[in-house]
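User: Predict the structure for this protein chain, please.
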Amino acid sequence: MPELRKDPVVGRWVIISIERGKRPSDFASPSHKRRVSGFCPFCPGNEYTTPAEIMAIRPEGSDDPAKWSLRVVPNKFPALQIDGELEKLGEGIFDKMSGVGAHEVIIESPDHLSSLTNLPRKDVENVLWAYHQRLMDLKNDPRLKYVLIFKNEGEAAGASLEHTHSQLIALPIVPKLVKEELTSSRNYYDMKERCIFCDIINQELQDGKRVVCENENYVAIAPYAPRAPFETWILPKRHESHYKPLENGGFSSLAEVLQRVLKQIDKLLDVPPYNYMIHTSPFNDEENEYYHWHIELMPKLTKIAGFEWGSGFYINPTPPEEAARYMREVEI
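Assistant: Here is the predicted structure, written as structure tokens:
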């Protein structure tokens, strides 16, 4: 019989349609396997086609613009512009503000055919460091309140270029979905004096059936009320309210868990398109006891249609307990 499940963080309901239950092989999402097909502005030698780079990782002592392992550049077609004053205006009951912000692209490797799944672990770690460095730099702009870091992998997930990359958009407001998590987490903390994410982590580690993988510092879980099949969250095991490196380990532990989850998904679902995003505390409240930063990763296996748009519900044909079990059984 189908189940209605409530997300404990934001109170969102999902339908776990057990009678529609789907195994990994039942999904027909288009496989995203890279190929060389024409000109790519992100490949070495084509640096002149992108806006001037913001940062790059190059061999020590090298000043060759084509020798790099990671580049960060402004998006050539930005959603928001870094220049200008932040003006807030009203038109009757309607509110608007000038489109001030930043939109950047993190080019994760010079190799057109690579992905976060098969990059050397150190290169994945460098990507995570680049996220952090850009967050710290953009934090200095008083116009900005939040930076959303995200990755669209594959055309079906919204990627316009197949060369491996992720993006960030810095905003003068806190996004609605993040604000919902913040508000609910704060209410939970006010009531229980505990972080709801810490409670979820402790319960999931004790139960084990929705744990995908873990190491000493991070855990990947299939959330109790997932919006999509094989949705996976990655969280630090100890309380951390905003995205930052471990004091002694940097991002190596996170790179290990992230790459393992991506390998599990690729092998299980035949390299599906996916999205992931980092949810972290806003700049004006980075250190707190109630919120817990995390990565939300969703393979693109189902489509959102009229019921979902009209109701706010999601229909998921794969229970998270089964999804986690399938992923645990993958041999990496």
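Residues 3-328 form a domain with the HIT family, subunit A fold (CATH 3.30.428.10).
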